[in-house]
Design a protein that fits this description.
The N and C termini lie far apart (about 55 Å). Helix 1 packs across helix 14 and helix 8 packs antiparallel against helix 14. The chain has about 450 residues and is mainly alpha-helical. The protein binds tryptophan. The site of tryptophan has 16 residues, from helix 1, helix 2, helix 10 and helix 14. The site of tryptophan (TRP) has 16 residues, from helix 1, helix 2, helix 10 and helix 14.
Length: about 450
């Protein structure tokens, strides 16, 4: 018997793609994409976004998948095994980013669960702004929901790759899609929905400034779960016979489709009731409940919407925890059970200051509460740096190995290999450096 236990693998290719899509499709798609699209010129922005997803996003995603599949290890171990030197630091930044992002992601995940229930218990009759304010300042309740959300996340990671992540993503992702389609049909058939569609999609090229470009790139990066070794970790469970470029393409496509479609729920609904669209948490937890409250059968629509958000958040949260857990399993030789529960619990604890900050019980730092600061550190610093080094690593330092990996040792053609290589070498690093520098504005 070998002393290394066989690494678990995805059961099917489709299971792998749904798991990656589950990671990618998250709060970023549903509450952030529609909003920044509306802000930056509608269809014109969508066009830029799609180009960036397929030029930069696809490039980095395939680079991560190749590193993961080649090494069959977590984000840190992958760099250690392939090159060593200082490279494992890139993996380290990724594991740290996963830890930080999940800490506040778990808090918002808890809100989504609470709001499914609240849809039926008076949210529709209340003033949504006041309801949200009194909810988030009720610290014990918010922590209880956060704990519940983290518990579900940990449980799925504890169950492993096939019986955990893959099994649940195979159920949850198609459900998400069905719920999304139902909500779109409802939203676009509301009287007055046309104004929302026009706001969302009418191309306005005058709004396509440098700022719009940076926003699109940053959004693409976060939305595709890039820069922290998430796709390295998921890629490490892919068998050697699978082909990677097609998988990367499909994940990019699914993520973009869901982001685009989410806007077809939000804007028609908001405009049909003559409400100004807001941003982020406000749009999702205040504006939309107000809108649902005015609709016949609002409870049902509200509950469905928050189920959608919950599912999107959960399948992303598990990918964040898996990055951290895989590190402790491979490198520290922890059991999966221990890694999932112990690290999940530590991440839950780090989320508590975010809860307190939103409740106004902690001082802010230059106008940012704890949650925003954690998000800034992870999304604006760790992720772009991670992505930058991943692209440079594949483009310049592991060129031949990466070529073998994406072509399965030359046995499968990858027509745009040269383009991809130069995207890794030059285009992606320049673009990412640009997001990094513009994103440093505190
Ligand atoms: N992509 C997810 C979203 O859109 C968030 C996410 C999950 C993520 N895993 C990640 C972001 C890894 C960056 C890196 O909400």
């Amino acid at each position: 018997m070998s002393n290394e236990t066989q690494r678990e693998q995805w059961g099917t290719r489709w299971g792998y793609i749904l798991a990656c899509a589950g990671s990618a499709v998250g709060l970023g798609n549903i509450w952030r994409f529609p909003y920044i699209t509306g802000l930056h010129g509608g269809a014109a922005f969508v066009l830029i976004y799609v180009i960036l997803v397929f030029v930069i996003g696809f490039t980095v995603m395939l680079a991560e998948m190749a590193i993961g599949r080649n090494s069959q290890l977590n984000a840190v171990g992958a760099f250690r095994k392939i090159k060593g030197g200082a490279w494992p630091i890139v993996g380290w930044m990724g594991v740290t980013a996963g830890f930080i992002i999940l800490s506040y992601y778990g808090v918002i995940g808890g809100w989504t669960m609470a709001y499914v229930l609240k849809s039926f218990t008076g949210l529709m009759q209340a003033d949504a702004g006041e309801a949200f304010g009194s909810f988030v300042t009720n610290v014990p309740i918010v922590i209880a929901w956060q704990a519940f959300f983290m518990f579900v996340t940990i449980y799925i990671i504890y169950k492993g790759i096939g019986e955990g992540i893959e099994k649940y993503c195979r159920i949850l992702m198609p459900s998400l899609f069905v719920v999304l389609l139902i909500l779109i049909v409802r939203a676009v058939t509301l009287p007055g929905a046309g104004a929302g569609i026009a706001y969302y999609l009418k191309p306005d090229f005058s709004k396509l400034t440098g700022g719009a470009f940076g926003a699109a790139l940053g959004q693409a990066f976060f939305s595709l779960s890039l820069g922290m070794g998430c796709m390295i970790t998921y890629g490490s469970y892919v068998g050697k016979k699978e082909t990677l470029p097609g998988a990367a393409f499909q994940v990019c496509f699914l993520d973009t489709a869901v982001a685009f479609l989410a806007g077809l729920v939000i804007f028609p609904a908001v405009f049909a009731f003559g409400i100004e669209p807001g941003a982020g948490a406000g749009l999702t937890f205040i504006t939309l409940p107000n809108v649902f409250g005015k609709m016949p059968g609002g409870m049902i629509w509200s509950a469905l919407f928050f189920v959608l958000l919950f599912v999107a958040a959960l399948t992303s949260a598990i990918s964040l925890l898996e990055v951290v857990a895989a590190y402790f399993i491979d490198e520290m030789k922890w059991s999966r059970t221990k890694a999932a529960w112990v690290m999940g619990f530590c991440i839950f604890l780090l989320g508590i200051p975010s809860v307190l900050g939103v409740a106004g019980k902690l001082p802010t730092l230059a106008g940012r509460d704890f949650l925003d600061s954690a998000d800034f550190l992870a999304s604006n610093i760790l992720l772009p740096l991670g992505g930058l080094f991943i692209a440079l690593f594949v483009g310049w330092f592991w060129t031949e190995g990466a070529k073998q990996e994406v072509t399965n040792d030359g046995t499968v053609p990858f027509g745009i290999y040269t383009l991809w290589l130069w995207a890794c070498r030059v285009v992606a690093p320049i673009a990412i450096a640009y997001i990094f520098i513009t994103g440093l504005k505190w």
